[in-house]
Automatic annotation (TrEMBL):
It comes from the Bacteria. Residues 194-245 are annotated as: Disordered. It comes from Undibacterium arcticum. This is DUF1845 domain-containing protein.
Length: 245
């Protein structure tokens, strides 16, 4: 799943202008797999998760959004448990071969990141990435000590990458679905306003309406909360296709 650079820039622009609560989380990633995912996916994940778990509630209400947020949290929790199980498996294989955590490999070029957390879901995803980075370190150790074949090692690394991107895709698809509903609601409101205006013309001046029926009616935009409208505009700058796999 490749992410369009323009999509990442659009998401980062939104976060740069986000006016709301944040917290900071400092972490170091060693695996090249995790560093790549962090740089490519987290700006968009942060933006999408914030909309799904917070701003969408202002538009659709808790009844609609609660199940979506629960599904996202369940996806992250399930992936986290899978990584924990894999770590235990790797530790067991190491012990069987007289290796301990002190024998673990270290990446040659670790990078420290200061992560700006904007939602509970985003914090959970960063913690998931930390766990994935630890798992990949165990895989590196198994491979370096000749306990797994290179082909199996590559497959194991790919599985971790696929699981993380599955979480990213889950929140992205939810965001896209909600954005489509936002646009459909706007079209429905426009249709209602247009329909009401046309009905008023017919009832008031039927002859004039028939004579000028080929001229488009001027439509007054439906009233919308300025705060919600501003957030919606920022959140819909990027076409959904730009984030497609």
């Amino acid at each position: 799943m490749a992410t369009n650079p323009q999509a990442r820039a659009t998401a980062k622009d939104y976060l740069d202008n986000y006016d709301g609560p944040i917290s900071q989380l400092n972490t170091t990633f060693g695996s090249p797999v995790i560093k790549q995912i962090y740089k490519r996916e987290t700006p968009i994940f942060s933006r999408n998760a914030l909309f799904v778990t917070f701003f969408a509630r202002l538009i659709f209400g808790d009844t609609t959004v609660d199940p979506l947020e629960d599904a996202l949290n369940a996806k992250i929790a399930g992936t986290s448990k899978k990584f924990e199980y894999k770590i235990i498996q790797a530790q067991t294989l190491m012990r069987e071969n007289d290796l301990s955590d002190e024998d673990k490999c270290q990446n040659n070029l670790p990078v420290e990141f200061n992560v700006t957390i904007t939602s509970p879901a985003y914090r959970k995803f960063i913690l998931l990435m930390i766990k994935a980075d630890a798992l990949l370190t165990y895989y590196d150790t198994l491979w370096m000590n000749g306990l797994v074949k290179t082909s199996d090692y590559n497959t194991m690394r790919y599985e971790v990458k696929k699981d993380l991107r599955g979480v990213v895709a889950s929140v992205r698809n939810t965001w896209i679905g909600l954005q489509k509903r936002v646009q459909q609601d706007k079209l429905d409101k426009l249709h209602d306003v247009t329909g009401s205006a046309e009905e008023g013309k017919v009832s008031a001046t039927p002859d004039a309406t028939i004579a000028t029926s080929d001229k488009p009616a001027k439509v007054k935009k439906a009233a919308t909360s300025p705060a919600v409208e501003a957030q919606s505009d920022l959140l819909t700058q990027e076409p959904a296709a730009a984030e497609a796999a």
